[in-house]
Amino acid sequence: MSGRTDSKRFRVRRDSIPAARRHVRTVLIGWKLGGLVDDASLIAGELATNVISHAKGTGDYFELGLRRRNGVLILEVADSYQWRMPELRKPADDETSGRGLLIVDALAEQWGVRPRNPGKTVWAHLSVGAGHR
């Protein structure tokens, strides 16, 4: 079944991170994509954490979007923070944060960032068949 879409707004606060993960789990199980739940909910949690950590004071909400198109699950997190786009980096061994995009990069088929007005959208693609690796 292709062509499914879901979008939900979350407040920019720490308790939205597990709420976003739960939402991804609920939607994907409903779409019969249970094999993608772990990777997709982890990616959603990492991207939501980035919003909470780096986009404070730039808006009350972020948006989590899920789309299934042509064998790909597209997960997007959009916020209104526009001054700094996220970049993949390798943190030092003694740093206690900074590994979120490394996790996204390891799990997603591909990912990226696109500007929007105002802000940005960070997206990740998971192959629908990837849930059976």
Automatic annotation (TrEMBL):
Gene3D superfamilies: Histidine kinase-like ATPase, C-terminal domain. Residues 14-124 form the Histidine kinase/HSP90-like ATPase domain. Keywords: ATP-binding, Kinase, Nucleotide-binding, Serine/threonine-protein kinase, Transferase. It comes from the Bacteria. Pfam families: HATPase_c_2. One of its GO terms (molecular function) is ATP binding. PANTHER family: ANTI-SIGMA-F FACTOR RSBW, ANTI-SIGMA-F FACTOR RSBW-RELATED. This is ATP-binding protein. It comes from Streptomyces parvus.
